[in-house]
Amino acid sequence: MGVMTRTPPPSPLDPAIAARLKRSTDGLVPAIAQQYDTGEVLMLGWMNDEALHRTLTTGRCTYWSRSRQEYWVKGDTSGHVQHVKSVALDCDADTVLVKVDQVGAACHTGARTCFDADVIKSAVSGEDAASAEDAGSDVPPLGQ
Amino acid sequence: MGVMTRTPPPSPLDPAIAARLKRSTDGLVPAIAQQYDTGEVLMLGWMNDEALHRTLTTGRCTYWSRSRQEYWVKGDTSGHVQHVKSVALDCDADTVLVKVDQVGAACHTGARTCFDADVIKSAVSGEDAASAEDAGSDVPPLGQ
Question: Where in the cell is it found (chains A, B) (predicted)?
Answer without folding.
Answer: Cytoplasm
